[in-house]
Design goal:
Chain lengths: 316, 343
């Protein structure tokens, strides 16, 4: 049977099972459908491809042909320009990296323990605790009050914390973690650990965490992608005179201002010669810089992603 | 841990094991036979483990909940005083004034209409297209190819609306945009997209579908792959056509998932994605008649007009209407098919 792919020994048993053993289709239908999906994938990827091409186009080509899939000439001017543009953009990049790493790490440190606690039957306050976690999914104070609380009670305006803290936890992620702890880790293992004299925290740290890497990966992928893409907190909590805190995404929101700032920096650095930045292509280079990490990481994290959604789908 | 405690633990765990052997239907196995100190200690450790998250939820979820009051007060803060005092003591009650002003204001009907209009299409197309694609994608033979397609399709989901705004801009910019460029090749006048509200309903719907279809599709794909393949094999042996198999096997199995998604989406029918309606049209003034939705209004009332009461009243309306609709939809679906309801 030709559906059985002998070149693909890496398949799990489950994946092999998915392949229709008695498929009703000829190879032609399968080929046509594959073409159809290739077309869809291409359509979906097209805008991203366009932006990548623009970022490598020369400025003259863009002024003449516009944003084109087939530019007249390629150039690295915009990239060169950005890499020489001084601190502003580099700082923004570092800010984004810092927010992503610290947010993801702290988030996991806060969410994993409570997820384990609510996954254990012997925790007497498990049900009230679950309710405590669920209520905010249904009710929230709304934008006004969280804005007022964050700015007037916690004084988060114009701090890194404003970009990290509000997105730190999510009941959804806690539930994904909890379901994994609850379903995929055998009770006997935990009992054995307790027999050996572990208290719940030791069991969690020494036994449960090491074998929960898939789900932890899943949640950290979601969490880090969402921090990397976040711009709304910056819009709410950062003033225009605190540009040193801007993450990349927010630099893009304020692009016109950013271009001006970049050219000012460049003039300062290149010694007072008025230099017009390749403004049109520079925007797209920044977009590429933001998209690139996601595109590079997605192939590696793709399987974890699906993992999480399958686990999330089994509501415990 | 002292030696005696260790022994006590051991005894406790043995007791738990015995409980399980005895098959007792206790909600907390072992807690009855254990020395009382042990359960307490274990609960304390569990509580300690939960503590950071509890603090976070109290600060960022529960503390802001009092903010519902903003909707029922004329917020008149005295400078220099604490927020809670300003809200509870210094501000007079407004009753339902904020709501009646809000609903009587001239833009409001348009804003609500926009929100409902977009959500209607997002719900219908956001379920139909991913289900359609998931059903067909399962039929592809090659596992690797399937994985590749999924990966490409889910990529847009992880891009922020800021980025999506730029991607749309690359197509629709008046001078450099790809679309105008193509139109000029075919000797047509370019269109000033960011000044022409007429097209944006379609543009925004396409943009949203482009971003969300892949992710939604994976959810249904998981549900389709969970279906027992022998059902299909049997159907093929009995001579069922592809459409019959979809109609009588796949769709019935997908019904619970579809219903869950549908109920949850109905619950957020007055919500809209702020980024899509604010960042993608680049906050263009001439597009406001079609891009203004409730969440954009909530943001603008707060950040641009500093109108706390109206903003809060809008948020309150969104959540209360959403909650009621969610309950009603859930009840209706439960009446039709009790397996598919959310709770």
């Amino acid at each position: 049977m030709k559906e059985m792919n002998p070149n693909n020994p890496g398949k799990t048993k489950a994946e092999e099972y998915i392949i229709p053993q008695k498929s009703a289709y000829s190879g032609t239908v399968n080929l046509l459908m594959s073409m159809f999906f290739l077309l869809i994938a291409l359509l979906i990827f097209l805008p991203i491809l366009l932006v990548i091409i623009i970022s490598f186009s020369s400025e003259e080509s863009v002024t003449e042909l516009g944003y084109s899939f087939f530019p007249k000439s390629f150039s690295l001017d915009a990239y060169r320009y950005l890499f020489n543009s001084g601190e502003y953009l580099f700082r923004a990049f570092l800010n984004s990296v810092f927010i992503t790493l610290s947010g993801t790490l702290t988030g996991l440190l806060v969410m994993c323990p409570i997820a384990y606690a609510v996954s254990r039957k012997e925790f007497s306050f498990r049900r009230p605790m679950l309710l405590f976690l669920m209520i905010p999914m249904m009710f929230s104070g709304g934008l006004v009050s969280s804005y007022m609380v964050n700015t007037q009670i916690f004084h988060l305006k114009n701090t890194y914390l404003a970009l990290i803290l509000p997105g730190l936890c999510s009941t959804w992620y806690i539930m994904i973690l909890r379901n994994y702890f609850h379903i995929s880790i055998p009770d006997s293992l935990i009992e054995a650990a307790e027999l050996d004299g572990c208290d719940p925290f030791q069991t969690f740290r020494l036994v449960v965490l090491p074998i929960s890497k898939p789900v932890i990966m899943t949640v950290s992928v979601f969490q880090s992608f969402s921090y990397w893409s976040s711009w709304y907190p910056a819009l709410l909590y950062l003033d225009s005179n605190h540009t040193e805190l801007y993450p990349l995404q927010y630099v893009l929101v304020n692009m016109d201002m950013s271009i001006e700032r970049l050219s000012r920096d460049a003039q300062y650095m290149s010694g007072a010669i008025t230099y017009v930045p390749p403004a049109v292509t520079v925007r797209m280079v920044m977009v590429v810089i933001v998209i690139l990490p996601i595109m590079i990481l997605l192939p590696f994290f793709h399987r974890f992603l699906k993992n999480g959604m399958t686990i999330g789908a089994i509501k415990g | 841990m002292t030696e005696t405690e260790k022994m006590r633990d051991e005894r406790g765990s043995n007791a738990a094991a015995e409980d399980i052997k005895a098959g007792g239907e206790q909600t907390e196995p072992g807690s009855l036979n254990r020395p009382s100190g042990y359960t307490g200690k274990r609960n304390r450790i569990f509580m300690l483990m939960s503590l950071p998250a509890i603090v976070w939820y109290l600060c960022f979820c529960y503390l802001p909940m009092f903010g519902i009051l903003f909707a029922f007060k004329h917020f008149t803060p005295k400078p220099g005083e604490f927020l809670l005092k300003n809200l509870f003591i210094n501000s007079p009650w407004a009753g339902l004034d904020n709501f009646s002003f809000l609903l009587r204001s001239s833009d409001m009907s348009g804003i609500i209409w926009n929100t409902l209009f977009y959500n209607f299409f997002f719900i219908i197309l956001g379920i139909a297209i991913p289900v359609f694609i998931a059903i067909f994608l399962t039929e592809i033979h090659s596992v690797k190819f399937k994985g590749f397609i999924q990966m490409v399709m889910v990529l847009p989901y992880f891009l922020s609306w800021v980025i999506v705004g730029y991607l749309v801009y690359a197509f629709l910019a008046t001078n450099e945009g790809q679309v105008n460029h193509l139109m000029r090749i075919f000797v047509m006048e370019g269109i000033q997209w960011y000044q022409s509200p007429g097209y944006w309903r379609v543009i925004l719907i396409i943009t949203e579908l482009w971003k969300s279809t892949g992710y939604a599709m994976i959810i249904y794909l998981c549900a389709v792959t969970a279906i027992d393949r022998s059902l299909y094999e049997g159907a093929v042996l009995d001579g069922a056509t592809f459409l019959q198999r979809v109609r009588y096997i796949t769709l019935p199995h997908l019904r619970p998932t579809i219903c869950t998604v549908f109920i949850l989406r109905i619950g957020t029918i007055l919500n809209s994605d702020f980024g899509l309606f604010y960042q993608v049209p680049l906050d263009s003034g001439s597009l406001q008649s079609v891009t203004q939705t409730l969440d954009v209004y909530v943001y603008k009332a707060l950040m641009q007009q500093a109108n706390f009461s109206f903003s809060a009243a809008t948020s309150f309306l969104q959540s209360i209407v959403g909650f009621v609709l969610l309950m009603v939809t859930n009840r209706i679906i439960k009446a039709i098919d009790s397996e598919s309801s959310l709770f």
